[in-house]
Amino acid sequence: MTPSKILRDLGEAKLATGRSALSMLVEWASLRAGAGKVGLSEYFDYQIYRRDLSRPEKSAFASYRVQHVLEQLLVDEYSRILSLDKLTYYLLMEGSGLPVPHTHALYAPRGRHFPRVVLRTPDELADWLAASDAYPLYLKPAYGGHGRGNLTLLGCAEGQIELVGGKRMPVRKLVESMADPAGFGWLIQEALRPHPDIALRCGERISGVRLHVFLTHSGPRFLIGVWKINSGLRDSDNFIQGRVGNLAAEIALETGAITRVVSGIGPGANLVEAHPVTGARLLGYTLPGWDQLHPLMHRAALVFPGFLYQAWDIALTDRGPVPLEINYFGDVDLPQFATGRGFLSPELMDCLRERGLDRLLAGRPQIDRINPNGRRGRRSAHWPF
Predict the structure, then answer these.
(1) H or E stretch covering 6
(2) The domain spanning residue 220 has which CATH number?
(3) Radius of gyration over every alpha carbon of the chain, rounded to an integer in angstroms
(4) Helix/strand/coil for 153
(5) Are 304 and 79 in contact (CB under 8 A)?
């Protein structure tokens, strides 16, 4: 965080709250030394300086440092590939009888097994795209995250691919742009359609749900719901810390109602009530299919016992909820931006205490010792295998 940004954020926070710069810096220093280990940029990004937050509420905010600790506690390191490789994820979900987007083909220049169509060369991919009658299509790397590289293809005519926003690209140029440094290939999938009611409010791109789930001894427990609202200008609904125009909203877990909508982050963040493009009201809106989502995600969460904490991305489509991917932990930033509350909630702490993990939160991430089960670090030793 540069000195100029610190001064700018301090000035904007002072104007918004009437607090002195000294009082905010003193408060931040105490939070930095606390359980959340909040950095100075995070203090401003999450608007922790707000007057409407109590001291316990401010102490519940978590930094990326705490995220690393929680990942050591809650993620089985041997299970990570089930989240990182989307092809493995989709095949596992299909085998479990759970809905996922249909994958038409796999483009794998280095070779992979897939029970349907496998395209090995740029020419094979270009010919397939030119001849396909399955448009619209959705392309994404099998290995990756945050929507990087994801692309919606609306159609193909005369050697040109039609993209979102009226753009066109030669098929050959598109194929040449599809690098595969990880060697996991590219998935060529159906482009899901949002529920018609969501499409009226947010446009034809998917505006999905991020659902945070903890595997307790008695089963999955839903902790946080976030609606990632596509502004209608991008292929992905990712919030990306408010930089791309998309919105983030808090969902009431019991009802599916939207209770808070935010655009941007930090002192410049705004609470909004309507979609920036369609003008449709978002605050107070109840997401369609919410009653279907609960039983579906209870089943899906149990497919991944190696992730005690799960962050699911789910599309609310014209055929019901469709789980797009499981993040083996997710991030602490998106739910804190969306809800305006700290990640270290009483509900999360209850879940950690149930498994005897709350006592391991203190300290830095540790990987400097080998435990009897062959795992490194004191936090990994609690796993039974």
Answers:
(1) helix 3-17
(2) 3.30.470.20
(3) 22
(4) strand
(5) yes
